[in-house]
Structures are given as C-alpha cells and as structure tokens.
Amino acid sequence: IQFPVHTVACGPTNSLRGAYFLSGIKDAIVVDIGGTSTDVGAIVSGFPRQAGSVVNVAGVRTNFSLPDTLSVALGGGSIVHKLSNNEVRVGPTSVGYRLKTEALVFGGKTLTTSDIAVAMGVLDIGDPEAVASLDKETVDQVYEKIVRTIEEAIDQVKTSADAVPVIMVGGGSCLVKSLKLKGASEVIKPPYYHVANAVGAALSQVSATLDKVVVMDDRALVIERCKEEVKDMLVKAGGLVEGSEITEMSEVQLSYLQGAVDTARLKIKIVSNLETAKDDGCTDDIQSVSSAEISDEFVDFGTAVDRKLIEGAEDKEVYNELKPAEPVVNVKGEWIVSVYDVECMAIGATIIGCGGGGSTYAGRLRLRKLLKEGHLAKIVDPERCPNINFDLAFMGAPVILHEKLMAGNETFDAVNNLRLVYETIIQKYESIDHYRQECKDDNVCTVDDNGVIYIEHFIGQQLKGEIDWSKLGLLVAEGGGLNGLEPLALGAAVGAPVVDADGMGRAFPELQMFSPFIYNRPSAPSVLADHRGRKSVILSTPNPKATEDCFRKIVIEMGLAAGLSMGYFDKESVKSVFVSNTLSRIRH
To answer: pLDDT over 90 for what percent of the chain?
Structure first.
C-alpha cells in the first residue's frame, strides 16, 4: 500500500460496495447502521462517490481522496437519555460492545435503541418482558428521533432535492421498521443486508490512478494514450485489464501555468478484479443461502468510540456556542464584528463567491482567533469611512489555500508597501524616470511586452516610515470567498476599520473586472507581496488587463498565493466606484 491513509474509510467503503452487490442498484444513497454509528454515503455507477475536496477524519480536515461519507452517532447500542422536559435524546454515547450486558433486554440497566426495537417488535433478542413496561409515548419519541436523524443525514449526502433510492444495510438497520423516508424514492433492505460490509470486503478489487499534467494538442489521442498508461499501471498492481472499468476521469484546464496553452491536469482511475481471482462458485453459494438462516441478532458492535470525534467536534462546538444576535453598532457608528457575525459572513461570502475568492475556512479560523485574543474587527458605512482607504485581497489559485495556509503577512505587506510607494515615489519624485535616476540603477524598473513598468523585486531601500492605521480604512476588493473576510482579519490585527463595500459585489476572476477600473480609475501603482517577503510593484501600466497579465506571471513564481493591493481611494471615490453594503449583505 503506497498511501495507507486511504484505508481510513475502508469500513464504510465496504458497506457501500456490498450494498450495490446485494441490491443491484448502481446509483443510490446507502445507510449503514452499526452498533455505535451510522455511515451514510452515495454510490455512483456502483462505486463510492469520492469527496470533492475536504474530508473530515476524526474532526480533522484533510485533503486526501476518500469516499464522501457522513457518520452520525446512531447505532444499535446508542443510549437513550430521558430529559427533564419529557423529551428524549438518542446518543451520542453508546454501550458499544457491552450491549449484551448493559441493555435492558439482557438484564442491564441502560435503555438503548435496541431495547426500543424490541419494544416495537421489530427485533427479537434478549427478554422482551424487560421492556414491556416502556410507555408507548417514549418508544414513539425515540423512534421518531431515529428516523429524523437518518433523514437529515440522507439530506446532507444528497446533491439535489430529487428523491433517490436508499439502501439500508448493517445489523442496526432493524431499528428502522418503515420503508418510507423523506427524500427517498424507495427504501430497500436487500437480502443479507446484515452482512453487506463483509460482502463488500470480499469484493475487494485492484485500482490504479493516473494523475498528470498533459498538453491537449490532440485531445482524443492524448486521452487514449493516458488510458493505455493507466492500464499498464493496473497490470503492475496485480489487476486484470479484461473486465476493467474506468470509474473516474476528470480534466481540469490549468490556466495559471506560464505559457499554458491547452494544458490540463488529467486524472483517470481504473478498477478491476485481482489477477489471481478465480470463479469458485462463491456467488452461487451466497444466492443459495436462505434469508431465514441469517439471524437478526447482532452481537459485536465494535469498540465504543468518542462520538465527538466521529461527528467532528470542532465544527459542532463552534455552532453550539453561538447564539443568534443582531449586529452591534457602537456610538461611533462602527459595527463591532462578533463571532456569530463571522460565521454568518463566512457562509454569505461563500455563496456570493460562486466558487471564487478562495475557501472561507482558513479566513474564518484566522478571524475567530483574532477576536478570541481580544482584537476588534470594525466595519464602517461608506458615508463614515476615512479619507484614505486601501483595497486588499489574495491573488492566485483558490485551490492552493487548501494545501498552503496564508502566513499572515501577505496583505499587510501589500498595503504597507503601496502606501510607501504613494508617499515616496509618487509624491517625492516628479516622474518614474526621475526615481530611476535618483536610484542610479537603470535596472530598477522592468518594462514588459505590454508596456507595463514594474519593479519585480521591490526592496524599498529609500522608503521609511510606519503606517498610522488609525487614519486609514481598508477596502474589500472582492466580497466573495476568503477575500470577503481577509480585510476584516487585517483590520482586527492592526486596528483599522473596514468599509462596508467591495469592488464587485461577488468574486471576480481577473483584475480588469474590478469596479474602480471599469470606472477608469488607474490600476497603478499596485503591489503584490508573498509570504517570503518578496514584493513586486507596478508603477505604470497602459490598462488594467496589462496589470492582470503582469501580476499573473509574477504570482505563479510566488507559489500562486500572494497579497494584493491595487490603489488608494478617498471617501468620495469609495462612494462612487465601489459596491456599497456588501459586508452587510453577506452577513444577512
């Protein structure tokens, strides 16, 4: 095994594959109820659907390619808690493997979901008389909780509002007596559903994955060659080409690669049986077993686990500690951002970002940390903003921040150096040529093919001074994604207010789409700064598209993630060329 971490979700994967084999349904939602947890996932063409990007493993976000499954704390050993308000709570704690000693039907003193199943008459284990005294209202309440938990999990796994087939497997599936669930077109409990996990394990196959960057000069030919290459990889891994199936093929254009014309990342996954596998009649033997010979009794529910980890306690805790509240505005008219505001704005920024602007997850955590440390994030209306305002954002490829977190200095350096450029070069020197002459270095500035004059490695030896942050405001370049939150984080760190406005009303793919540029505001000077302290400054440019092209080449060298600041704006400019009240909109 090259990457053992990929086996983390082998349990749910086996159940998904087993459910497909036993039911014959290739596209469905699978609900696997065990002793301590319920795993819900989707099968597409008979194989587990892979997660798009982030996968939570024991509450930790990872970038590994794993099946997209959801675990909830519901199983045959889940403990039923009676609350003081006559309500009931199912789980998240469980008796686990101690079911046969702690459940009521086995002479124990703990009310479990298995006891409820016995009381409903859908499960025949232990002593039914031990639960005969349970009142019908309690039994019905618990069953309703069980069904609601499963329906909510199914809804989270679905990718559309359409009803889809649901396959119930696992020993704990007996907890659900009804074959009707919200969001399900039909509910199937296939023969031998108890042992779907074991069946899936017995069906283990060999796979090979090709993931490479290719030039699509002849797309059909390139794809065909790559298919042959992945087949060779399959054979080396011990698989059979005969009967193999390509389960995944994706093609992503790489627009950020320098000189990338028709360049794409091509990923192909192929699956087949082991070369040593023989048809020994196993399938026929399985089909000949009578369903009556398989007992409804399930004994070992596995090791009891801390359900907080399974559910992703970090995210759960975040929302449990928050209480909905209206924004707080102080006597100066400043909106003081709360933790609840951050959570709401992270969701809103994701929505208006439409996939752009970067993931809000890292920005959300950074901003929450600053607030926890006592910093204040303040938002002011454009009518109340300072007369000196600098916009800021991250530039690069949004997916980079899935793997490389921001260092924290990128946007600070961009704004700080743009201020220094304005105060020193623009104000002190009469022209760029005068600045070059004073520096006595003809190589200080570079001129690219589009006529952009820029300093690729800006050192700022002649530039001194510190920003008085209290006298300036920060502007959101784009309100979508991470860039909708980054100005708030920088503002909280340095004590500067953020103006309730942005440069587009969403995320934008290229700099020339920035609304001030559309209103003919100059796109120079502008500064790009990376986490290593490198700064590049554009001093003069013929048009915003030329600025985009120049910085796009530089940001590739910077690792596709850098802080950006594109201009100084006075109060009247903010009111006339920016989209007002964007932060309020994403908050609500």
So the answer is: 33
CA-wise closest residue to 32 among 407, 298, 284, 281: 298
Measured between alpha carbons, how far is 169 from 21 in angstroms, rounded to an integer?
A: 12
Q: What is the mean pLDDT of residues 345-360?
A: 85
pLDDT at 309 over 70: no
pLDDT score recorded for residue 58: 67
Q: How many residues does the chain have?
A: 588
Report how far apart, in Å, the C-alpha atoms of 416 and of each of 123, 485, 504 are: 69, 19, 23
Tokens read off for 56: 């939570």
Two tokens at 206?
């060999």
Enumerate the H helices of 397-543 as residue ranges.
Answer: 410-420, 427-428, 432-439, 486-494, 515-518
Contact criterion met (CB below 8 Å) for 141 and 88: yes
- CA 532 to each of CA 159, 353, 390, 408, 482: distance values in angstroms, whole numbers, following the listed order: 40, 28, 22, 11, 20
State the pLDDT at residue 319.
39
Name the residue with higher pLDDT: 430 or 307.
430
pLDDT digits (tens, 9 = 90+) for 536-556: 999 889 999 999 999 999 998
pLDDT for the residue 304: 31
- Nearest 5°: the CA angle 61, 66, 71 is 70
Round to whole Å and give the CA distance between 538 and 381: 30
How much is the pTM? 0.63
Q: How many whole angstroms from its chain centre is CA 555? A: 24
User: What is the rounded CA–CA span in Å between residue 449 and residue 254?
Assistant: 23
Q: Could you tell me the two tokens for 368?
A: 């929450």
Which residue is listed with tokens 């030039």?
215
> How many whole angstroms separate alpha carbon 525 and alpha carbon 423?
12
**Three-state SS for 586?**
helix
Helical packing angle, 486-494 and 360-372, nearest 10°: 20
The Cα–Cα gap between 267 and 212 comes to 7
Q: Which residue, among 532, 538, 529, has the nearest Cα to 445 in the 3D structure?
A: 538
Instruction: Note the Cα 535 to chain centre separation in Å.
Output: 30
Secondary structure in 3-state letters for 555-575: HHHCCCEEEEECCEECHHHHH
* Cα–Cα dist 398/406, whole Å: 12
Rounded Cα distance, 135 and 220, in Å = 67
Tokens of 364: 């959300």
- Bridge partners of residue 169, in order along the sequence: 32
Say yes or no to pLDDT of 368 above 90: yes
Q: Are strands 568-569 and 55-57 parallel, antiparallel or unpaired?
A: unpaired
43 DSSP β-pair partners:
28, 48
The alpha carbon torsion through 501, 402, 56, 246 (nearest 10 deg) reads 120
d(CA 113, CA 122): 12
Work out the pLDDT band at 432, boundaries 50, 70, 90.
low
The burial class, CB within 10 Å (0-12 / 13-18 / 19+), for 152 is: middle
At residue 366, the pLDDT reads 92
Give me the pLDDT at residue 83, please: 81
Token pair in block for residue 27: 């596209």
